[in-house]
Design a protein that fits this description.
Ribosomal Protein L22, Chain A; five-stranded antiparallel β-sheet; 6 helices; 9 strands; globular; binds coenzyme A
């Protein structure tokens, strides 16, 4: 499975449009082996046919914005899976809380402020997984940087061309994307403390997971949004 940071950049443009008042139409894109989709639930229900009956049933356990985002996430994941030629199969909730993609597909979703972003790719080897995360940059306390990043990571981020607020959000997005990709591989619910960012080179990251697993990550920024992928 190979990634292209350009895909994430284009997707973030769609996220930014979807995050405006009123949202926007569903967006999909295929770049290399990745298929990405963005669905907004700000302007009302997700498009007909993008959520299956079983997922509608699962969603009744939630209410309000959580239910809307759950459905938008499933719709985005469905569109991303269709982008790699996968037939519509209901996506249940796994034991770790993850959206369980159809067999043979690595897929993941994230939602924030009424916008869902999903990515899917066909497995190039059994057990492939991918993680995606979306963050909305707010003037969070930059002291979070100290909580989220270890000293070696702080040095790495200080060399990157990012202001401290952006660095906090890039770091959170990268670690959450890595948690999602790695949790399903090790069948364990991982935490920030299990993930460390080993190197940052431009917008590409080498991510180390407790236990020895190494992942590649990429991030993209389109203020006020930051997104990261890990695989
Ligand atoms: C699991 C986690 C990464 C999800 O990230 P988030 O920013 O809360 O939520 P997002 O919207 O980006 O993603 C949610 C989706 O991720 C997926 N997901 C949830 N848990 C997952 C897991 N363990 N593995 C893979 N995917 C998971 C689901 O599809 C979920 O959406 P759905 O419930 O609508 O299907 C996050 O909740 C987490 O546990 N972070 C670690 C926090 C930590 O270590 N805290 C320590 C104190 S600082």
């Amino acid at each position: 499975m190979n990634g292209d940071r350009g895909a994430l950049e284009i997707a973030l443009e769609a996220v930014e449009r979807a995050g405006r008042p009123g949202g926007c139409e569903p967006w999909t894109c295929r770049v290399g082996s990745w298929s990405l989709a963005v669905v907004s639930c700000a302007a009302g229900p997700v498009p007909a046919g993008t959520v299956l009956d079983e997922e509608e049933r699962i969603s009744t356990a939630f209410s309000g914005s959580r239910r809307a985002e759950f459905l938008a996430g499933r719709a985005a994941l469905r569109l991303a899976c269709r982008g790699v030629g996968v037939a519509d199969i209901a996506v249940p909730i796994g034991a770790l809380g993850q959206a369980v993609p159809p067999r043979g597909v690595a897929a993941c979703l994230t939602h924030k402020r009424g916008v869902a972003l999903a990515v899917a790719a066909l497995h190039s080897m059994p057990g492939d997984s991918i993680g995606v995360d979306l963050e909305f940059v707010s003037s969070r306390n930059t002291r979070l940087l100290e909580r989220v990043l270890g000293p070696a990571e702080r040095d790495g981020f200080s060399g990157a061309d990012l202001d401290p607020v952006a660095a906090v959000h890039v770091c959170i997005a990268a670690k959450e994307a890595a948690i999602k990709a790695a949790s399903v591989r090790v069948s364990e619910r991982l935490r920030f403390a299990d993930i460390s960012i080993a190197t940052i080179s431009g917008e590409t990251l080498r991510i180390q997971v407790r236990g020895g697993l190494a992942l590649t990550g990429v991030f993209a920024r389109k203020p006020p949004w930051v997104a990261a992928l890990a695989w």
